[in-house]
Amino acid sequence: MDKHELDAQNSQVIKEFRARDGKVGGMFEGMPLLLLHHVGAKTGAQRTNPMTYQRLDDTSFAVFGSNDAAPAHPNWYHNLRTHPRVIIEVGSQTIDVLARVAEGAERERIWSRQKELNPLFAEFERRTTREIPVVVLDAF
User: Fold this and answer.
1) pTM > 0.70
2) Which residues contact 20 (CB under 8 A, 6 or more apart)?
3) String of DSSP letters for 97-134
4) pLDDT (tens digit per residue) in 22-66
5) Residue range 73-84: mean pLDDT, rounded
6) 65 CB-side CA count, 13 A
């Protein structure tokens, strides 16, 4: 899928997400989904990506840089490393969060749970040679 097709698909998912308080059909049906608002590391442009997530507790969420098992991390990951203060939409809520990369035992705990919750992530791990980043989004 080229960039224009992906942008069009994301626009449709975002529209449906907002119209249905965070619920969408298609490839995301039944998955927990949030909208990640972030700023381009190089361009400074505002971006929004629909992403599956894992709820960690009342104020923290985890997202995963699987990038469909591509050899490189997704662009949003680099953006969060440069600009970690971001906004997410979860259901009908808008939440200010601070992004940080989980490491060590924390990463393993969250990543193992994600593979249990959604075996597609285990498939992504098998298909790539890089460690898939686990990014924790802590509300502030």
Assistant:
1) yes
2) none
3) EEEEE--HHHHHHHHHHHHHH-THHHHHHHH-SSPPPE
4) 999 988 899 999 999 999 999 999 999 999 999 999 999 999 999
5) 97
6) 24
Output DSSP code: residue 7. Answer: H
**Amino acid type, 71:** P
Max alpha carbon distance in the chain (Å)? 38
Q: Are 13 and 7 in contact (CB under 8 A)?
A: no
Q: What residues pair up with 138 in beta bridges, in sequence order? A: 60, 98
Angle between helices 104-117 and 120-127 (to 10 degrees): 120
Q: How far is Cα 104 from Cα 118, in angstroms, rounded to an integer?
A: 21
What are the backbone dihedrals phi and psi of residue 74, each rounded to the nearest 5 degrees, phi first?
-70, 155
Q: How far is CA 126 from the centre of its chain?
A: 19
